[in-house]
Design brief:
It is a single chain. With 294 residues, the chain is an alpha/beta fold. Helices cover 39% and strands 13% of the residues. It has 2 domains: 9-175, no CATH class; 177-293, Diaminopimelate Epimerase, Chain A, domain 1. The longest helix has 24 residues, at 152-175. The relative contact order is 0.09.
Length: 294
Amino acid sequence: MFMENKIPKIAVHDGGFHTDDVFAVAILSLIYSKYKILRTRDIDKLRSADLRVDVGRNYNPKTGDFDHHQKEFIKTRKNKIPYASAGLIWLSFGEKLVNSKEAFDYIDKKIMQPIDAHDNGINLCKEEIVPYSIQNIISTFSPKWDLENPDYNSSFNKAVSFAKKILIEEIGIANSLKKEKELVKKTVEETNNEYIVFEKIPPCYREILVKYPKIKYVVSKSVSGNWNSEACRIMENSFETIKPFPKEWADLVNERLAKITNVKDAVFCHRGLFIAVAKSKEGAIRLTELALDN
């Protein structure tokens, strides 16, 4: 459902807000340059809205209804993650903001699925150390509990503005995925080594390189001006690497690392053995080759 040349009235529930309704409205704010927000649960007022998001107890994109709380709602993805309002709005409007199905799926998997899962009561983490999540961040926009007259509407709008900024950056990353994958693939195919070198490293290189296990290290120029050699990871979101740097390099800096490696401009090797740094590209490549021979 897309209303061209119209300023839509978007209804969401009043009172406290959550990550799913915040991001749902943030998506719509990228679709419509102008819109009106109506925060209410009043049935008569809801009827006056063009879109009803996370409220109204009905899901029907043709009528502008995007609620998931009703008992009869059973819409899930192929991976069994159920939809909440953020995912439902992305499902109907997201393709207008991305340049490919791949970019659409990237945003759904990275942002919408965790938001939807959490809103539907699915635990996002099974570890004892729970990451500070987007849900934690959005909750900071809520009025403090002991205020006399909390302004939830103003707080909601601030949260939406914040979520909008995140979406703009993530959609930009998603829309560059095809270019990045082509560059990484071309670089891998053209090398006879077990490492590759980038003057400018594509942001999503870790996700892409897990498909090329023959590549053990990535050499790239850092924003500091030094050159990094990073050990490739077994999985995108893991620090476990295919081939760590030598144990005896752990936490060595400057002269100490230079002495043990004979690389004069060596700067640092992380104690976790997943990255080593030199001042020059040649130095970083030499550290990489030494690690491969180790």
